[in-house]
Amino acid sequence: MLLEFNNYQRVGASSNAAVGREFEEAAQIFFHSEGVVLARNFVVPVGYKLRKNKRFDLGSASPRILVECKSYTWTASGNPPSAKIRGMNEAMLLFSVAPRDYRKILFVLKHLHPHSKVSLISHYIRNNGHLIGPGVEIWEFDLGARQGARVF
To answer: So what's the architecture of 16-150 in CATH?
Structure first.
């Protein structure tokens, strides 16, 4: 039997989908510890002239909050993960067309570059900060310490 090797699979993980689900669960627990109860797969209509329901990773109608979780890391060679950067850009687009009265949070894994020690989200903000809409918050979560902090 041949085993396929996937260069894009997180080392030690059963699947990238499992990594995402586990990070969403950690985010949900973190916000609950801060007194904010969020539901998973929270649906709200997004769009300008035409609206379409969008499922956000976490959310609440009261208080009105939308959260997109991203458990992204630098590549093994220390490069920014270009496809993942596009995923964060997509989150910014979705926040821009979400109802204005919602608090919008991009909740990301704290991951430091192996040499420079710059966090991936700091790199994103420096290079793509012009895409971060008004009122969008960016939080970085240290999975090992189970601590989160707003960085933007």
So the answer is: 3-Layer(aba) Sandwich (3.40)
